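Re: that backbone. Tokens:
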């Protein structure tokens, strides 16, 4: 698989180890003959050791064959998140470092998740594109606030903070994009 085709969440093999891509930076040098470079922030699977890798856009990386099992979030066991397989009800326990920033989007009974499995061991989590969360704390709307497009901070029921439009009030349920962390509209 070419480096330019790799997306966040892909699992690749590098120097005999297996890594999950967590972040991608693309840089294209100015001027003639500049080749596009990709900088991947990867974490070893399992283990979670961080590795930064810079490659050219045409460089090849071997994608690892992994199973994706649809699962629903069940409960939290200490720092670990437990997901239940939607088909055969196998519990998958994922450590907080594997879930990473995605923890801020996980609510009770969240479905549409995919647990990534290599050799029967859960190694990664793919969240749905957007989730519904409740606003627990945000400043009140200013008079005439709907005339301007000023965003304001809002703390959600999972503890994360996002920017929302002025008209959103405490207690409202909103869609949040799990990839960008941006407000996506009212849920109800």
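Recovered sequence:
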């Amino acid at each position: 698989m070419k480096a330019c085709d790799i997306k966040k969440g892909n699992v690749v093999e590098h120097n005999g180890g297996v890594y999950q891509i967590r972040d991608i930076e693309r840089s294209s040098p100015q001027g003639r003959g500049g080749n596009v470079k990709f900088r991947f922030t990867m974490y070893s699977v399992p283990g979670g050791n961080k590795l930064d890798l810079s490659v050219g856009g045409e460089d090849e990386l071997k994608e690892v064959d992994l199973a994706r099992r649809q699962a629903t979030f069940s409960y939290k066991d200490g720092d670990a998140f437990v997901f239940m397989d939607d088909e055969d009800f196998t519990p998958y326990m994922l450590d907080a470092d594997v879930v990473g920033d995605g923890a801020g989007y996980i609510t009770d009974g969240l479905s549409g998740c995919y647990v990534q499995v290599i050799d029967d061991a859960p190694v990664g989590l793919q969240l749905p594109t957007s989730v519904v969360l409740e606003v627990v704390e945000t400043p009140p709307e200013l008079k005439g606030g709907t005339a301007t497009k000023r965003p304001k901070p809002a703390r959600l029921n999972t503890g994360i903070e996002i920017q929302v439009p002025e008209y959103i009030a405490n207690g409202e349920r909103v869609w949040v994009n799990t990839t960008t962390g941006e407000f996506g509209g009212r849920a109800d």
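The chain has three domains: 3-63, 67-128, 131-186. The mean pLDDT is 84.
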